[in-house]
Design a protein that fits this description.
Elements (H helix, E strand, L loop, with lengths): L6 E8 L3 E10 L4 E6 L8 H12 L2 E11 L4 E5 L1 H18 L5 H8 L6 E5 L4 H46 L4 H22 L4 H14 L3 H18 L6 H22 L2 H21 L4
Parallel strand pairs: 3-4
Antiparallel strand pairs: 1-2, 2-4, 5-6
Pfam family, one: YicC-like_C
Cofactor: a divalent metal cation
Organism: Labilibaculum antarcticum
Length: 292
Amino acid sequence: MLISMTGFGKAILELKNKNISIEIKSLNSKQLDINTRMPNLYKEKDLVIRNEIKNKLERGKVELSIFIESVGSDKETKINKPIVEAYYRQLNELAQDLGIAMDKEPILQTIVKLPDALKVEYQELDEEEWNLIFEGFKTALAAIMNFREQEGSALQKDIFARINNIENLLAEVPQYENDRIETVRTRINDNLRDFVEKQNVDKNRFEQEIIYYLEKLDITEEKVRLANHCKYFLETSNTGNSEGKKLGFIAQEIGREINTLGSKANHSNIQKIVIDMKDELEKIKEQLLNVL
């Protein structure tokens, strides 16, 4: 079954003093590219989050966001009392030395603006709270995996339909083959008749050369290989694993056989079939860019 690399998952938690929203988005990428956005309080768990994403999503450009709506904060600002007292004593002594009356309220407002008068104390990570957040993260991760499977199912239907279209187009080729061979034979004879009649040429040998040339234009091998590649593509898609890269390689081989078929065609109707095959294959390649 095919799995898409495009997906979205979300979980919302209501904790004692905060609401937490966890969102995971993913887009197609050749490798796994993880970007996390979370409050500093949870940064120490970044590696745990990344490992879980790596194990579950495998490939894609993944963005994780953790948003907090809190009645409090992960940091608390407090007055650094010893520093403020020291500032006040020094200012008071200076005012007395200078004979200046000191208004206490404006002085305190000034002091708290001085360096180190305020200190910031950060909250420590609560493991019990983190366990709840991690469970929410896993819920969002399960949601994005489900989303990817649904998208993959839609991709698979479309890709399979286009592979079947290529197989149906291939089935139309044989009806033109006899006419194609006769057209090539006639063209060779018409172009070389005058030369053969005017030159001392062994006609039996010449006929053998024409047969050899026509055999070089035979497309039986390309048809067989193309049919086998299409069959292998479908088999690989149904293995139970999403094999995006491998399917991309098989699609390249399908394209190679289609191109060879076109170069050997020498028939307008077969050329039209080849063009339709290429159109279907290009759409398959575009879809495969999103397959895990």
